[in-house]
């Protein structure tokens, strides 16, 4: 019988498999339909913010900060009505997923407890959508924050306006909210995880190799994408001191992914240790988790 998640100590190293050589990943053989070719990877500039899509702003209180989050119409941007995602075309970046807020709350707790500092750090947010965790890193002293999303349209219509709105809003209260350098480097990259690494800091000869912190929320819902996501992390995380914070649902029913599916990929590779940072079971959805990965 599976033990209750509440019985797992907060920082306990997670082991999904035993040490027997017969342990494997056969249950990860999940059939998904072939996807269309991904859009080309490219950098999206601040100047490419969409002028044609209506962008509405509303406040959200999380992690000790009041941030603003934009809202845009999926129909206007992608000609898709009432759809969270269309695999290979639109990957849900216009919706604010619960995991983004869970991640910020966990990051705030990690900072308060002295286990994390963004001061002067290079940060990458994968599958950013609204970009709120990356924005949180900006406001907590990161020197560089790069945002990545599958769709350039999400960056143009939502992420970049959100970053600009939040930095401008909070810079007016810098004494109490913004920590560290105010001249933050923010850049935006679109494309598939299988190719986008060639544009990121880990492949730029004029920058130190890798990111100090990689953030990602609700990125592990698709089984077919997990290997590319894991490879991207291993390429882009600074060794040996880099850390990954991942927020996700324990299981994504109907699509097969989840935090535990991704952690089984992590464990099989053997490069990273993983620890549970937070668990959210509020009854509004299935169990959500925040995990931390670091090099062994």
Helix tally? 6
- How many strand elements? 10
Rg calculated over all Cα atoms: 18 Å
Q: Globular, elongated, flat, extended or rod-shaped: what is the shape? A: globular
Q: Regarding quaternary structure, how should these chains be classified?
A: single chain
CATH topology: Rossmann fold
Low-confidence stretches: 1-31
Structural class: alpha/beta
Q: What do we call the CATH homologous superfamily?
A: Vaccinia Virus protein VP39
- Which percent band covers the strand fraction? 15-25%
With strands numbered from the N-terminus, the spatial order across the biggest sheet is 1-6-5-4-7-8-10-9
Largest sheet: 8 strands, mixed
Mean pLDDT: 85
Helix content: 10-25%
N-to-C order of helices and strands: EEEHHEHEHEEHEHEE
Name the CATH architecture: 3-Layer(aba) Sandwich
Assign the CATH class: Alpha Beta
List the helices and strands and how they pair.
Elements: E1 42-44, E2 56-62, E3 65-71, H1 74-78, H2 98-112, E4 122-126, H3 132-139, E5 144-149, H4 152-171, E6 185-190, E7 213-217, H5 226-236, E8 243-249, H6 259-269, E9 272-280, E10 288-295
Parallel strand pairs: 4-5, 4-7, 5-6, 7-8
Antiparallel strand pairs: 1-6, 2-3, 8-10, 9-10
Helix pairs in contact: 3-4
């Amino acid at each position: 019988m599976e033990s209750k998640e509440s019985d797992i100590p907060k920082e306990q190293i997670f082991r999904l498999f035993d040490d027997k050589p017969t342990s494997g990943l056969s249950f990860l053989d999940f059939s998904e339909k072939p996807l269309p070719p991904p859009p080309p990877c490219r950098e999206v500039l601040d100047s490419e913010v969409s002028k044609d899509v209506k962008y509405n702003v509303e406040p959200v209180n999380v992690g000790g900060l009041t941030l603003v989050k934009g809202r845009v119409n999926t129909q206007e941007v992608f000609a898709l009505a009432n759809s969270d995602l269309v695999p290979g075309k639109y990957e849900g970046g216009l919706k604010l997923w619960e995991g983004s807020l869970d991640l910020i709350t966990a990051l705030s707790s990690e900072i308060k407890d002295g286990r994390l500092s963004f001061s002067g750090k290079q940060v990458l947010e994968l599958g950013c959508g609204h970009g709120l965790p990356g924005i949180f890193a900006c406001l907590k002293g990161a020197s560089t924050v790069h945002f990545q999303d599958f769709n350039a349209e999400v960056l143009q219509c939502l992420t970049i306006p959100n970053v600009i709105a939040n930095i401008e809003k909070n810079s007016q209260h810098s004494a109490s909210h913004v920590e560290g350098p105010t001249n933050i480097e923010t850049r935006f990259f679109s494309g598939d995880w299988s190719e986008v690494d060639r544009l990121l800091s880990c492949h730029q000869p004029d920058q130190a190799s890798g990111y100090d912190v990689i953030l990602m929320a609700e990125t592990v819902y698709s089984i077919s994408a997990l290997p590319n996501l894991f490879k991207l992390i291993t390429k882009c995380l600074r060794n040996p001191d880099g850390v990954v914070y991942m927020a996700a649902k324990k299981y994504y029913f109907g699509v097969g992914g989840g935090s535990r599916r991704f952690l089984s990929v992590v464990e099989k590779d053997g490069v990273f240790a993983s620890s549970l940072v937070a668990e959210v079971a509020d009854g509004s959805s299935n169990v959500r988790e925040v995990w931390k990965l670091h090099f062994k």
